[in-house]
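Might I ask for a little of your time on a matter of protein folding? Here, with my thanks, is the record as I have it:
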Amino acid sequence: MLLLFLPDWVGPVARYMFEVGLPATLKVSAIALTTSSLIGVTLGTLMTIHFFPSRALIRAYIEVWRGLPIIVTLFLVYFAAPQISPTLEFGPLTAGTITLTLWGSAQIAEATRGAVQSIPREQHEAASALGFGWSGRHLYVILPQALRRLLPPLVSLLVGIILNTTLIQVVGGAELLETAERSVERLAAPTPPEFTPGDIKAFEIYAGVMVMFFLITFPLTRLAAYLERRLV
């Protein structure tokens, strides 16, 4: 009913952004967070093993993908990787998901290492006394406690991933910001008969994008703050 009182251009633009851009943003974010968590927790736990070669390799992984600007990693995945092998050619959204996974897994790996090492040594000794080996000790005793401390950073990371999906727009991925830009361009040229020349709706459309991102991320930032107070 509200659309009946809005200009004619609002309905098609909103429908395009909600049906194409928003689902793509949420899908990329969900996949990137899931894969980042699996890879990051595994690597972060392995970082606590006193075996120099594995620790050095994981440390290099963390420093490379944490240290590079995300957009540089995106260009490496989207533009450079196909030059190495045609099988490494990805679409914009897939390349963005891989990029955010590399960045996110490095962040989670470092956070996991800190969380695991923050568990008192007595917990390790008690688990060993009960007959647990390294894997059993970490799986059943150490990681459940460490993951409790990891929840606030994980929620904050999800916010970062959602916001950084906007970088996929650079390579043409139809996420939320890209659909907004396409809508602005579609309304601006050629000028539709119902609009006067120069009647570009950029402010209204990008303001809508701002509101949508705020509505998605603000509850998550409050959740991260709540979890930090309760769990850490």
